[in-house]
Amino acid sequence: MSTVVLVAALVAAGLIAGLFYAYACSVMPGLARGDDKTFVEGMRGINIAIVNPVFMLTFLGAPLLAGVAVFLHLGEPALPWVIAGFAFLAGMVLLTGAVHIPLNNALERGGDDFAAVRAAFETTWVRWNVLRALVSTAGFGCLVGAVLTGRG
């Protein structure tokens, strides 16, 4: 059971790290090429669409499963990797709650002055998303380390 939970955490972490990576290297650069209205309306649409069961299952499931895996791996050589993976994935959730959700909410409430709304959102959101992509990737990497340690 401990291996199943760890692998499930690993898969969920990989999916979520890949999502934030895709935002960093394609979604946001693509939206950046549009005018202010296109950018703001595009992000507003994405922010609504992303809150769905599949996203929430992976976004919250990765740290939750990693947390369960910590307890299932007590006393095992993989434990430090699992703890580190959990910490990074929990950090990803905290970062999203502290930075991205408030920015997304402000974008939604920002009105129709698209230039001002974009100016208050884009640079900060993009920079913090790069950090979020790195943090979630580190969580994924640590869980890979845990799986590899468990095989040894």
UniProtKB/TrEMBL annotation:
Lineage, top-rank taxon, reads Bacteria
Q: Which organism is it from?
A: Amycolatopsis tolypomycina
Spell out the protein name for this chain: Uncharacterized membrane protein
Q: Keyword set for this entry? A: Membrane, Transmembrane, Transmembrane helix
| Pfam family for this entry, one | Anthrone_oxy
Q: Which sequence ranges are marked TM in the entry?
A: 50-72, 79-101, 130-149
